């Protein structure tokens, strides 16, 4: 990253950083997951998570498998945690993530996606010390509470896919350390797609799980982070749960799966079919005006697949998924990140690869 880009990023993070210390007494109201308003997606209501390439986002008939999806950060205001208002630009960003990420799972599963008091982007992307740790802890407790509510009141013991991205994946990792979820995961978990946040191989093994070694394997934990060929991630430490709270920790060996081959082979693997999806959006971009609190006149109309898709992916020596090819070049030409960082594209690039893989793992689990 150049000094100029460093300066731009620092200026941006400063512009969205809260100007007061975290105080739980000032935290937004705790969500009540018995109320539909505290869910970003439920099977019985129209949702961006139900978008299909054909264009429908209406709820269909109840399926025999569930997906519990924990969305990434969409909160960029100068408070430590989101107040869970659906009349907000933050929720509009969540809907875009549901349309381009959670939609992967809607063919064969019912999607349950809780809203939670997510930590602001500044808390997770920079070192705000105790403030970062406490705001992340508040967010996690909501995630844990929502999964408990789902299991006790909504699941009816159906097989489960756990899925997430970015901040959602940071919290999802921790769910596996909770004793209260062990029996349910042991019986019901098909696979966990915890994408877009570092996850160490030793930690997965410590939890008693494996990474993916084949496309039909049951109960793997799947993690990858996408960069362009030759790209680099500059951060040396990430927020992790250390047994007592969130702290910055160095990353050793990443537990990475190539989302084309579905194993940890270091070789290049070519995409053999169209996979990348794009959203069609009307109105102003909800990612440009970061300081906007209320909803914008923005609407997600559909998701669609561009033509002429051609790309390959491999696991790099430092454990990231490198992607190359004309499709990737077109994305990178828009300069959407630093140092060929494709973080926000993790699901979109491999959307159809993940979708096909989900079907295989579900069929294996159900014995079809």
In brief:
The chain is an alpha/beta fold and 368 residues long. Helices cover 29% and strands 17% of the residues. The protein has helices spanning 3-16, 89-100, 121-125, 130-154, 167-175, 182-188, 201-207, 326-332, 346-349, 351-366, and strands spanning 39-41, 66-70, 110-114, 160-165, 189-195, 221-222, 226-228, 237-241, 246-250, 269-270, 278-282, 299-304, 312-315, 321-324.
Description:
With 368 residues, the protein is of the alpha/beta class. It has one domain (3-366). Helices cover 29% and strands 17% of the residues. The chain has helices at residues 3-16, 89-100, 121-125, 130-154, 167-175, 182-188, 201-207, 326-332, 346-349, 351-366, and strands at 39-41, 66-70, 110-114, 160-165, 189-195, 221-222, 226-228, 237-241, 246-250, 269-270, 278-282, 299-304, 312-315, 321-324. The strands form four sheets. It has a six-stranded mixed sheet, sandwiched between helices. Strand 13 and strand 14 form a beta hairpin. The N and C termini lie far apart (49 Å). 45% of the residues are buried. The mean pLDDT is 93.
Give the CA-CA distance, first to last residue: 49 Å
Domain count: the total is 1
Strand order of the largest sheet: 1-3-2-4-5-6
Q: What's the story with the biggest beta sheet? A: 6 strands, mixed
How many DSSP H or I helices?
10
Radius of gyration: 19 Å
Q: What is the averaged pLDDT score?
A: 93
- What's the order of the H and E elements? HEEHEHHEHHEHEEEEEEEEEHHH
Low-confidence stretches: none
Broad shape = globular
Helix/strand/pairing class, anyone?
A: alpha/beta
Please tally the β strands and state the result: 14
């Amino acid at each position: 990253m150049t000094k100029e880009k460093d300066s731009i990023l620092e200026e941006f993070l400063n512009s969205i950083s809260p100007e007061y210390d975290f105080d739980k007494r000032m935290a937004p109201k705790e969500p009540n997951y018995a109320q539909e308003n505290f869910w970003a997606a439920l099977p019985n209501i129209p949702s961006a998570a139900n978008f299909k390439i054909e264009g429908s986002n209406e709820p269909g008939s109840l399926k025999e498998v569930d997906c519990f999806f924990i969305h990434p950060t969409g909160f960029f205001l100068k408070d430590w945690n989101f107040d869970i208002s659906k009349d907000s630009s933050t929720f509009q960003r969540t809907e875009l993530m549901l349309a381009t990420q959670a939609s992967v799972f809607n063919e064969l599963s019912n999607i349950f996606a809780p809203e939670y008091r997510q930590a602001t982007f500044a808390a997770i992307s920079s070192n705000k010390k105790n403030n970062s740790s406490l705001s992340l802890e508040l967010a996690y407790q909501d995630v844990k509470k929502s999964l408990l509510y789902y299991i006790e009141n909504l699941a009816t013991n159906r097989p489960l896919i756990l899925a997430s991205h970015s901040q959602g994946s940071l919290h999802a990792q921790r769910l596996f350390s909770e004793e209260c979820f062990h029996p349910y995961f042991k019986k019901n978990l098909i696979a966990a797609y915890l994408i877009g946040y570092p996850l160490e191989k030793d930690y997965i093994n410590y939890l008693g799980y494996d990474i993916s070694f084949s496309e039909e394997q049951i109960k793997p934990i799947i993690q990858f982070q996408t960069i362009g060929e030759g790209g680099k991630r500059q951060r040396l430490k990430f927020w992790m749960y250390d047994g007592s709270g969130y702290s910055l920790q160095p990353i050793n060996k990443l537990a990475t799966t190539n989302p084309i081959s579905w194993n940890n082979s270091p070789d290049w693997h070519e995409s053999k079919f169209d996979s990348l999806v794009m959203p069609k959006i009307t109105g102003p971009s909800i990612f440009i005006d970061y300081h906007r609190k209320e909803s914008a006149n923005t609407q997600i109309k559909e998701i669609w697949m561009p033509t002429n898709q051609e790309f390959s992916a491999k696991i790099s020596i430092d454990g990231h998924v490198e992607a190359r090819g004309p499709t990737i070049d077109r994305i990178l030409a828009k300069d959407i990140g630093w140092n060929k960082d494709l973080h926000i594209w993790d699901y979109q690039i491999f959307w159809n690869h993940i979708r096909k893989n989900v079907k295989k793992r579900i069929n294996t689990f159900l014995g079809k």
